[in-house]
């Protein structure tokens, strides 16, 4: 049994095919590896990937696919065709852990009933439940933690393990990280089987990488790990101390991606606003954005995620000054009640946040703001919850996500008293989302008649009769959709191309538009 996660073999798993979104398609390559299908050798090992969780995990999957392709493996997009299946897992909250276990079991059937010879589990679940995975799921042949990505080629049986002198491992850290380490922030002692060394890996521009996103868009991970003390979160234990990629490394990767046809770059990290602090850079993110904005081939640049008190005036000025930098800020606030935020070890409160939102809207006219909250934190009273609800009404974010508090062994909040029931947490989560739904509906309606640039993403998943796209207000895979139902006569719209569009209708979260 993995903590709260059930390993239920009686569950009837769907046959073999995963949704195409979940299964890693091999669409474009941006790395020393030129093209996976071209370098595939006859009778080479066929490897299939399932990537779960966030974009940061997706980049890890892309890096592992790059290493495998460079070592001679052929990447396949159907689990039934794979000799080796890799499941890159998420362990953020209980539901993500459960989804990871269910997917591992689903893929295990390809070993017992199909052609697969090996099953490898990678990612955050390995950092959290290393021993339990190996002991309780015998179909799993190898595990690869978030700091051991170079181990994937050996784990998949494609090539011997690389030398332990990995050129990709970096060692710098911030004083905050060292201080938090001495306070026990990164301790994994309560986790059976967790290896002593914290993950310290971070890829660079020389690392092979196979992109799994559509050709026109790509993520670049600019930092890994987190030094913040948030008491509900185990990401620092799963991903290690905060460390930044070298400035030149990020620029070199962005340049190569742009020459490979990528038009939109999303910079990612647990906290991109801390970028460069460990390298001695002041306003590192702003400097990076400025440099990227000067790249001719790029059309949109954005970053995820901002830590509230790290959003500087310089960063806001930089966003406002460059058309290519999307006027879009995702700032997870987690709560608005000062007492809850204090227990979360995040500080501040709704009033401070409102002032900072007002500043963002003043300095970047038309800025799109996104946030996320954790509801049902231990001891959250009715009054504290109402403070959050009122803040949601007052702040009027464009996009918002809400997670129910999930108890995690190893997180500071695990030992707190007065835990709320799952039912109460879910009820509060729904109440907050209900408030936001009305705000979103009103804000989307106000966009009707306005014109925006839109990147076309192809035929809609909802209907073959509709196209789908995104504006600068929509981060990839995160926000609502724009359905395109009308194009000018004679125009043959192409996926990955940018078009001017006019919004013609609005739903709660989605928009309908026509290309003008
Ligand atoms: S800033 Fe985000 S990733 Fe870091 S500890 Fe807090 S919630 Fe977790």
Report on the structure:
The chain contains 14 helices and 20 strands. With 516 residues, it is of the alpha/beta class. The strands form 6 sheets. It has a 5-stranded parallel β-sheet, sandwiched between helices. It has a 5-stranded mixed β-barrel with strand order 16-17-18-20-19. Strand 19 (498-506) and strand 20 (511-515) form a beta hairpin. Helix 9 packs parallel to helix 10 and helix 13 packs parallel to helix 14. It is globular and about 55 Å long. The chain starts with 27 loop residues before the first strand and ends with a strand. Mean pLDDT is 90; it is low at 1-7, 10-40 and 165-169. It binds iron/sulfur cluster (SF4). Residues 226, 228, 230, 233, 235-236, 270-271, 307 line the site of iron/sulfur cluster (SF4).
Short description:
The protein has helices spanning 36-39, 55-70, 94-112, 124-136, 152-155, 175-182, 235-239, 247-259, 284-293, 313-321, 338-343, 350-363, 382-395, 422-445; strands at residues 28-29, 46-51, 74-76, 84-89, 118-123, 142-144, 210-211, 217-221, 223-224, 243-244, 264-268, 300-304, 328-330, 368-375, 399-404, 451-459, 467-470, 482-486, 498-506, 511-515.
